[in-house]
Amino acid sequence: MVEDDTHTPDIDQLYSDLVRIVRKAGDIALSYYGQHIKSWDKSHNNPVSDADLAVNRYLQQELQALDSEIGWLSEENEDTPHRLKCTYIWAVDPIDGTRAFLQGLPEFTVSVGLIANGRPCLAALYNPVHDELFQARLGHGAHLNGMPIRVNDHQEIHNCRLFAYRSLLKSPRWTTPWPDVKLGMVNSVAYRLALIAAGQFDAIISLQPKNDWDLAAAELILQEAGGVLTDRQNRTHQYNQQNPQMPALVAAAPQLHAKLLNFLQQYDSRYDAPAGIIHSPDKPPQ
């Protein structure tokens, strides 16, 4: 990535504007929620709707007006190599959890993160149905509706509240059965991570790829709440690469995260999907 050291945006002002814009974007999404709106599949089992596009148009207009030198990466725009030349980029998912949105389930979020030199530095994530606004600034903690949040201190896999698909845990690829856990699921992966940050769940495991726009805001919120997010090899994700994806996802408070990584060594990955076969982050693995 080529860095432009001559441009440093006003982070204080951007943070204030970001929170305001994401909240308004959530209001736009909410105006479509529960209505009969046009939707279609961008690819197999990967829906998009008029609401996604309307929210994306608003976010792009407002965020790019704040600073024209910040690059752009959104689920609902064609990716271009221009962002690779930018030190700062917006990573945007206008409606993360489109399937839930279309089904009338309150499990979707508007998710926007600001990436600086490959790592998130500002985040705003909003569930407008529940009026839950998660936000974070690097080094300044994470907040939900203005109140500080912190990950739960549950340290054992046994009885942890885990976001994962039952099919993954019951797979014959595990050489050791899973301990008893309390499984949960919501459609938006960003919302799952925010709920872990707020202490309402303990951990998430997904062995399917995730996109930068799914993770940018939520990872910073989790990190500032005391959590850790890596891939299954304990590698931290570097954002704004040519392929803006993370191959797998493990997130929790530090001690539980370490134990989950250790347990993952018992997963036989010889039959994983080959590189280049992408599964949507909103869908259960097939």
Give a written overview of the molecule.
- With 286 residues, the chain is an alpha+beta fold.
- It folds into two domains: 11-148, Fructose-1,6-Bisphosphatase, Chain A, domain 1 (2-Layer Sandwich); 161-264, D-Maltodextrin-Binding Protein, domain 2, CATH 3.40.190.
- It has helices at residues 11-32, 50-66, 98-103, 166-169, 189-197, 212-224, 254-264; strands at 39-43, 46-49, 71-74, 88-96, 109-116, 119-127, 132-137, 142-144, 147-148, 161-163, 182-184, 203-206, 210-211, 228-230, 245-246, 249-252.
- The strands form four sheets. A seven-stranded mixed beta sheet has the order 3-4-5-6-7-8-9, with helices on both faces. A five-stranded mixed beta sheet has the order 11-10-12-16-14, sandwiched between helices.
- The longest helix has 22 residues, at 11-32.
- Mean pLDDT is 91; it is low at 273-286.
